[in-house]
Amino acid sequence: MVTYKDSGVNIEEGYESVKLIKNHAARTMIPGVLNGLGSFAGMFELGQYKNPVIVSGTDGVGTKLEIAFKMKKYDTVGIDCVAMCVNDILCHGAKPIFFLDYIACGKLDAKVAADLVKGVSEGCVQSGCALIGGETAEMPGFYPEGEYDIAGFAVGVVEKDKIIDGSKIEEDNVLIGITSSGPHSNGYSLIRKLIPDINKDFGGKKIGEALLTPTKIYVKPILELLQKFDIKGMAHVTGGGFYENIPRMFKDDFTAVIDKNSFEVPEILKYIMSLGVEEKHMFNTYNMGIGFVLCVDKKDVEDVIAELGKMGEKAYKIGYVKKGEKEVCLK
User: Fold this and answer.
1) Confidence class of residue 2 from pLDDT cuts 50, 70 and 90?
2) Which contacts of 307-313 are long-range, i.e. CB under 8 A and separated by 24 or more positions?
3) CA 138, CA 152: separation in Å to the nearest integer?
4) Fewest CB within 10 angstroms: 95, 100, 121, 192, which?
5) pTM score
6) HEC profile of the chain
7) Distance, CA of 212 to CA of 75 (rounded, Å)
8) Neighbouring residues of 32: CB distance < 8 A, sequence distance ≥ 6
9) Alpha carbon distance 262, 304 (integer Å)
10) pLDDT by residue (tens digit) across 48-83?
């Protein structure tokens, strides 16, 4: 008798994976979730909003996964997956409310899949949203055995009159940068080309470990700031670095003037640049130590930085806004 297992798909391993995943997802349950994992769809009740707008974003982890495979460390890239999505929708003032993930592989290992979702659940806990569903696809012959892909999407909500869309940004507003935790999840194809040996020493540990540092999630500190200050624009510094992402907060024609010496560049990014990458390309590929940017009025700068400090976030005044093309000018 021919079974599905003969084709390379192990249903029993899938059942074991779901069993392990449910334990991690349970950590993320928040008010509003109406059902658990296992239904055909996840349900979430919005609750008391006057004029809610749904904000969504989707992303993956990219080739950072290759380093996780080689290090056999799978419990952090799920944080990256959540972070890349929730940090994006946060830019419009939205509070993330739920997340769904998608994991694909050639041959399913329930323990590896559970570690991936463990990271996803940790990212959801950090961002205050619920993991309400997902999909694990075993596709023998399509993905190499031992390799996985992970992606997901986040859904958030914001009152319509609280949407941040850059329309209130004015000339001479100030840009505040909040520190990153490293490269986050961007530019890893270049990193893997420049650093083929992930076991080499870097500050007393394997450089692969440093490169797997999870993307920082900015949701909780930013949502607190939005309750206290008039934040006029926000940017998640992701793929494309400063040049592509900071201008995305502008609705009108403004230029972001950035003082590149106003903040500290992480050692891992200094090391990458030392391997032959020119400075402009670094700023067009990596966050260079600034993972999230706020645009505020001059009068609020010191108070916003101080408030972030109270929440354990290091922030800098990194530049200002002037009339011009939607671009970045580094000084």
Assistant:
1) low
2) 307/224, 307/225, 307/228, 307/229, 308/176, 308/178, 308/221, 308/225, 311/220, 311/221, 311/224, 312/221, 313/178, 313/179, 313/221
3) 17
4) 192
5) 0.94
6) CCCHHHHCCCHHHHHHHHHHHHHHHHCCCCCCECCCCCCCCCCECCCCCCCEEEEEEEEECCCHHHHHHHHCCCCCHHHHHHHHHHHHHHCCCCEEEEEEEEEEECCCCHHHHHHHHHHHHHHHHHHCCEEEEEEEEECECCECCCCEEEEEEEEEEEEHHHCCCCCCCCCCCEEEEEECCCCCCCCHHHHHHHCCCCCCEECCEEHHHHHCCCCCCCHHHHHHHHHHCCCCEEEECCCCHHHHHHHHHCCCCEEEEECCCCCCCCHHHHHHHHCCCCHHHHHCCCCCCEEEEEEECHHHHHHHHHHHHHCCCCEEEEEEEEECCCEEEEC
7) 10
8) 44, 45, 46, 47, 97, 98, 130
9) 16
10) 899 999 999 999 999 999 999 999 999 999 999 999
Q: CA 82 to CA 84: how far, in whole Å?
A: 6
Q: How many residues does the chain have?
A: 331
